[in-house]
Design brief:
GO terms for molecular function: serine-type endopeptidase activity. Belongs to the peptidase S8 family. It is a single chain. The chain has three domains: about 350 residues, no CATH class; about 90 residues, no CATH class; about 325 residues, 3-Layer(aba) Sandwich (Rossmann fold). Helix content is about 50%, strand content about 10%. It is built from 26 helices and 13 strands. The strands form three sheets. It has a seven-stranded parallel beta sheet, with helices on both faces. A four-stranded antiparallel beta sheet has the order 2-3-1-4, sandwiched between helices. The radius of gyration is 32 Å and the shape is elongated. The N and C termini lie far apart (about 90 Å).
Length: about 800
């Protein structure tokens, strides 16, 4: 980099342009105190923010929402623990430099506390949070802004050069995010930019000339060296920016900001070597651009341990933040070396312009060429008031020939109701150019839109409610497929012998033949030896609304494992003679109401690849039994009744619907995520090898006091198939649920006249269940009520159920 003419070493330095006296005074103890308080501020802030996020995630996994007041209280406590010692540092020492350090840390701590209050806004209202952050950061900057003394005849070239180089450094910090991240919706992205700009302005008021004065000059007025300014001043500035980062973004985003913003302090310090004529603009540009990544290019809801099992958003966010940290340190070092050789060395304007232009082009090229350009905001799930009347079909015909007639009638009514009831709304959406996707299983429409559209839809007379439909942002690379190297069992697994499935095959010669089981999950490895022969085939037996694959595949492994427990070969599956079809509703372990309905509609009326569910559905090809090892919690956009019309439709159609109770036990009343609490769903808990209810198995009663679970099945260390031809033991009520689906397939295969007779089938399963043990039975009974709230009717018993089905 070229630099301007050097000032002779013996030429007296120009006087400082500020009025704050700079002197050391007080010996080394103020400096020691500043070091200790700085280390304390870093430790407390990082620890508080990381602990708060970890607790939030653990509660989320346990099915409990973090109270809205926890994050604000955490921020205020963090601010007090840092602000009190910083305030003492700002008042007591004689050294103006140390006092300035204390002041900037005190203001940073106050900002952390105030910004942290905004986390009371729910994550689903990201636009509201970003708008509030913009307003609060702007007000904070206005309140702490100080009037800077400027020279009578400012030279504009250093100011323009400093700003250009700051923009270049900020874009460099942003490059990893442009490559690895993705934007949200249009309004959300615009508000993220405004909040980042407001934070940049706040940083200029925080790191003002009064703060930098003590690091630019010694007590006697001599200019300080690059080491003092860049290393010492940059470190103190980094602590201040770390405090600001602790309050920046909703829970999760601040973890990335804690890595990105603090090292920018070194770059800001290096730019100060251009002289005070550069002004404060470089600080604002650099910090503002650095904040864009955590605020705009990642969804805080997706920085979750629910997505941390594979290379999903948490992985790429950590990678982007780490890369930004490294770039910031390199930028500070590079600028420090370039400007530190000669005092007040100023690069030529052409050099600064060239660097800036190169970074702008690089940013655009990376985003458009390597990144995920486009808008990926949350969508709106609009539930209409009118739902199809199906109650009169609940007692319809049964049997292998009668039940399909019920399915056809249910499909006809659902589609007809949706087309008529949605007509006016769809016309309005077309008129306004809003993209949407209609559904009939629940009379609902998924609409692309933000808060304004949501407000308009909520006020319509034909709309019952509007939910947020979580939409995962795309990844820079597909998540790796989960493989297992386990070998195939040579004898039936313990879980099959525990429920007596092997006895049904051997003694009754029943294996599920003639029954089709449908699985909605992460997918299915259609080439797996345990499943390949059971695939029904045809153009309407597989649907992947996430990736558009045309043959059964599974990257997560969960769907392969669960389906194989239902219909895999004789050593892993309950009904090895049954056929199966599949659908992907949880490609990345977080879904939404719309994706769940995509698969459920396919199960009611399968359609060919690329077909329209409304016009191309084939109810005659519907499976008789469904296994569903998933739930739709509020974080995904479901409320208690979101999928209620869907399960009611399957009940009216005579399709047996099994669902996992959930893994949030032993907490009482933890069966709360749809569809498990619904009365027309057969809900399954889990037991271990010793017939004891597993501690993780969710407990009842369900919402409204409904008795749940219905019964329990093997769910701890269950061996089953995994993608790639291997086998692995997994635990969860997800593993228990397909056992019930498999036994129903055995029952209906043994007695086809029972197909569609849901009441009789459920009663047989309950009546033939065997007792189980409850760890800590007395405590459970006292806390959760009857033992049935933990174990339902008891343990699934395949031979007794099939014998009863035969009559």
């Amino acid at each position: 980099m070229q630099v301007g003419p050097a000032q002779p070493a013996d030429e007296p330095a120009p006087p400082p342009f500020h009025a704050v006296p700079v002197h050391a005074g007080g010996g080394p103890w103020p400096v020691v105190a500043a070091v200790l308080i700085g280390c304390w501020a870093v430790a407390v802030t990082v620890g508080a923010q990381l602990t708060g996020w970890s607790i939030e995630q653990l509660l989320l996994v346990g099915g409990v929402s973090l109270p809205a007041w926890v994050w604000p209280v955490t921020g205020l406590a963090n601010a007090v623990l840092v602000g009190v010692p910083a305030g003492l540092l700002a008042l007591l020492p004689r050294s103006a430099t140390v006092r300035a350090t204390g002041r900037v840390w005190l203001v940073g701590a106050l900002a952390l506390g105030v910004f942290g209050l905004l986390r009371a806004i729910p994550l689903v209202h990201q636009e509201g949070y970003l708008a509030a952050l913009t307003v609060v950061a702007t007000l904070a900057a206005t309140l702490v802004r100080r009037r800077a003394h400027r020279p009578d005849r400012p030279e504009r070239e250093p100011a323009l050069i400093g700003t250009g180089l700051a923009i270049a450094a900020g874009l460099a910090l942003l490059l990893p995010w442009l490559w690895l991240g993705a934007l949200g919706g249009r309004l959300e992205s615009a508000l993220a930019l405004t909040s980042a700009a407001a934070l940049g302005w706040f940083a200029t008021t925080l790191l003002d000339q009064d703060f930098w004065a003590g690091y630019e000059r010694h007590a006697d007025g001599r200019p300080a060296g690059a080491a003092r300014l860049v290393l010492l001043g940059g470190l103190v500035a980094g602590v201040a920016l770390l405090l600001v980062a602790g309050g920046t973004g909703p829970g999760g985003s601040q973890l990335a900001a804690l890595l990105v913003l603090p090292p920018a302090g070194f770059t800001v310090a290096a730019l100060r070597r251009l002289g005070h004529l550069a002004g404060s603009a470089p600080t604002g540009w650099l910090v503002g651009l650095a904040a864009v990544g955590p605020l705009a290019l990642v969804d805080p809801e997706e920085i979750s341990i629910l997505l941390a099992t594979t290379r999903d958003v948490p992985y790429w966010t950590a990678l982007a933040a780490g890369a930004s940290l490294a770039i910031a340190l390199l930028a500070g070092l590079g600028y420090g070396l370039a400007f530190g050789r000669v005092r007040a060395g100023v690069p030529r304007r052409a050099v600064a312009a060239t660097v800036t232009v190169v970074l702008v082009l690089a940013a655009g090229g990376i985003y458009l060429g390597l990144g995920q350009p486009g808008w990926y905001g949350e969508r709106l799930f609009v539930v209409l008031k009118e739902q199809a009347p199906l109650d009169d079909l609940m007692a319809g015909p049964t049997g292998a020939t009668g039940q399909p007639e019920r399915v056809r009638e249910v499909h006809r009514r659902l589609v007809g109701t949706a087309l008529r009831a949605q007509a006016d709304l769809r016309h309005e959406l077309d008129r306004w150019g809003l993209a949407y996707r209609p559904y009939y299983l629940v009379n609902a429409i998924e609409v692309t839109g933000g808060p304004v559209v949501r407000g308009w839809l909520s006020r319509r007379d034909d709309v019952d409610r509007v939910l947020i439909s979580q939409d995962l942002r795309p990844l820079p690379a597909p998540a790796s497929t989960h493989h297992s190297g386990g070998t195939a069992p040579t004898v039936p697994s313990w879980n099959l012998t525990q429920i007596g499935a092997d006895q049904v095959w051997a003694q009754l010669r029943v294996d599920g033949s003639g029954i089709v089981v449908g699985s909605s999950d992460s997918g299915v490895d259609g080439h797996h030896p345990a499943l390949v022969d059971g695939f029904r085939g045809g153009d309407d037996s597989w649907y992947d609304p996430w990736n558009g694959t045309r043959f059964p595949s599974d990257s997560g492994g969960h769907g392969t494992h669960t389906l194989a427990s239902a219909v895999g070969d004789e050593n892993v599956g309950v009904a090895p003679g049954a056929s199966w079809i599949g659908c992907v509703n949880l490609d990345r372990n977080l879904g939404n109401p719309a994706h769940y309905l995509d698969c459920l509609q396919f199960m009611l009326a399968p359609f060919p690849t690329g077909g329209d569910p409304f016009t191309d559905g084939r109810p005659d090809r519907a499976p008789q039994v469904l296994t569903n090892s998933w739930g739709c919690p509020p974080v995904e956009g479901c409320d208690a009744g979101a999928l209620r019309p869907a399960t009611a439709a399957f009940a009216a159609a005579g399709i047996f619907f099994t669902a996992a109770a959930g893994n949030t036990g032993p907490r009482c009343a933890s069966i709360d995520d749809p569809p498990a609490p619904y009365a027309d769903v057969f809900t399954v808990g889990a037991v271990d090898r010793d017939r004891r209810v597993a501690p993780f198995s969710s407990r009842g009663p369900a919402i409204g006091g409904a008795p749940k679970p219905d019964l329990v099945a093997p769910g701890a260390d269950v061996l089953s198939a995994m993608p790639g031809g291997g086998y692995e033991a997994l635990s969860g009520t997800s593993m228990a649920t397909p056992h019930v689906a498999g036994v129903v397939a055995l029952m209906w295969s043994a007695n086809p006249a029972l197909i569609g007779d849901l009441d009789r089938t459920r009663q047989i399963l309950r009546d033939t269940a065997t007792p189980v043990s409850l760890p800590g039975a007395n405590a459970t009974a006292a806390a959760c009520g009857p033992d049935s709230n933990s174990a339902g009717a008891g343990l699934l018993n395949a031979p007794a159920a099939v014998h009863a089905a035969l009559g």
